[in-house]
Amino acid sequence: MALAGALALAGCAQDRLADYGAGGQQGETVTALMRAADAKSAEGDHRAAATLYRSAHEADPDERVAPLVGLGRSLSALGAPQDAAEAYRKALSIDDDQPEALRGLGNALVATGQPALASGYFEQARAVAPEDWRIDLGQGAALDLMGEHAAAQAVYRAGLAKAPDQPDLISNLALSLALTGEADEAITRMRPIAERTDAAARHRQTLSLIYGLAGEREAARRLAEIDLTPREVEQNLDFYETLRGFEDPTRRLRAIRARTAQ
Q1: Which pTM was predicted?
Q2: Domain 165-262 has CATH 1.25.40
Q3: Assigned architecture for domain 25-129
């Protein structure tokens, strides 16, 4: 069910690592596999991309970080965060300061319910790549899941200072604000994102959720109806009422994540 973004993580399927290593026949094989994998990743065919990245790693398992980072990224996109974490850890065993591997491992750990452990990897990534807003997106998600909502909101705001119009940062901040009872600011921030002509369904449904948390059932319904079936709309509206009965913001968030994962 398309409920909401429920704290987006910073996994960009089209990230690139340009340095694929040394020359020679082995290097040429890895380079060719990486190019093919990158092309499949850009097309959104993450299963094929994962196979190619794995082949590139197996062609030269000890020296190159890029195939492992690509593999982790593809596995994350396929909904296999535990396998993605393993790939990222292998990458970090080669280069422990590789920022995408650090960030990717943090995101994978958040996805597997280990936000406190993830937060440390985001801190390491920030030390290497301080201007990367995607680190703030991931760490904010971890902090929200740890119940540290004020700290999460500060991190999201720091990310927005680097990328002021980034919709996932705005969405995460707005949801965090709504969870802690700051509905007016949440709606003000989220409405321009959700009402754009090119808005993603997850952003519209995040605003629907925010309206639901604020008790604005009809506003929530109007947005839900854009993307969902009538039955799904009613299920979501009933769920929002259930969430309103939870006083603990972290309990609300965990319930949202559990429902989104169904």
Answers
A1: 0.88
A2: yes
A3: Alpha Horseshoe (1.25)
